[in-house]
Amino acid sequence: MRLGYNDIINQRLFPPIFILGLAGIALSLSMGQLPIAMGLIGLPVLFIMAIQSVRYPVALFFIIFTVNYYLLAATRYIQIDGISFLMDSLMALLFMLIIIHSALSRDIEWKHAINTFTIGMFIWLLYCLAEIANPTGLLEAWLLSRSLILNGFLISLIISLVITKNGQVRWIITLLSIFSLSAALKAFAQKYIGFDYGELQWLNNGGALTHIIGYGTRYFSFFTDAGNFGSNMGCASLLFALMAIYVSKIGQRIYYFSVAAMIVPIGGLMLYTLMSKNLKACILGGLSLIFLYVFFAFTTIGQSNVMIRRMRTAFTPSEDASFNVRKENRQKLATYINTRPFGEGIGLSGVENQKISYRFTTSIPHDSFYVKIWVETGIVGAILFFGVYFISVFRAAWIVMFKVKDKELKGRLTALLCGIFGMLLSAYGNAFLGQFPTYIIVITGITLALKGEYFD
Length: 456
Prior knowledge:
Blueprint: H1 5-8, H2 14-30, H3 34-55, H4 57-74, H5 83-105, H6 116-130, H7 139-144, H8 146-162, H9 166-192, H10 197-211, E1 212-213, E2 216-217, H11 226-246, H12 250-259, H13 266-275, H14 279-298, H15 306-312, H16 321-337, H17 369-402, H18 407-426, H19 438-450, H20 452-455
Antiparallel strand pairs: 1-2
Helix pairs in contact: 2-3, 3-4, 4-5, 5-8, 6-8, 6-17, 8-19, 9-11, 11-12, 11-18, 13-14, 13-18, 16-17, 17-18, 17-19, 18-19
């Protein structure tokens, strides 16, 4: 006989559990074991949380989504070992709860687990499993890269199953707006008030080498580094600027315009121009792109401003010493990797992995998430990885453009997808895509857009 939710917490089970709990607390206190007593007092809370998580798995997803954004910042103040293992464990727990929930209520629609992204990431998972046989690979490095291997598939699968309503999409975007505002405020505090003790300790332990540099300070807010922070803020600025165009309520429009306080990234604006199917938007978007390119590439206006000068190097990269060094590094890696179509091995690129194995590929910074994929999994893995992501994005764009009829939902998903696309382009110049909190945000955005027709 199947056990339902009400049977778990009904009157037959509650009295004996309650009596045993009181007896345990009394015995612990009589023996002077206060920690045990406190643990027993906390057990009912954990029990209720567990039952509610089984009943509403989506609630645990929202908790994980929130923790994901702030967890790395917390490690600057609290010693937390193995944060990636913690997040992986939470995701695995959530998937188990989904299975239990499905068995008890049978309201999980497993057909939604099959989409372009989950299928592609499952193929990527199989390819990464085969990488164990790579003769130049190392099992320890492979095991430490489990997030890159598994999380794309697992997270997209979970989101496909638990996010089932238009209102939940609104909640995700609302949470992202709150997260983005808090991150911007934190960066302002770093600039105008100063770094706190945890941030100063992080800078003194090596962060200053890349963040306190010649042209000024690179602020990083709650993120792993300034590149990760900047890309996420660029995504947020585009996401909420477009949201403000689509929402009908004046209060929401003002709020989203307030959040969108930074410069719109080029890649996301480009995708919006293509997706809008609106002649006026295409013309305005195209003219904006041309204006931005001409301003940065062919003029010296604002050159005395440090930030404008740095941004201009993205349009005239040959004049940037850092770009030239990265170019030389990639040429060296290309010569080495061209004889290894399956790469050096997962987890064996970048100077940060010298502690695992010192070799040619770990003696040179990869400076790009895509270069990391290429070096570790070879040209075969790189084509597979890029193919999965960009095919999924363009499939999602097609669904949003031609299948979603509700105007606000279309706007919501368009904005989200354009912001994600901007980050995917930005990942070519920074190795931030697999970092907290970006990876889950990117996977969430793509998966939600692929489900657009269902939400409609």
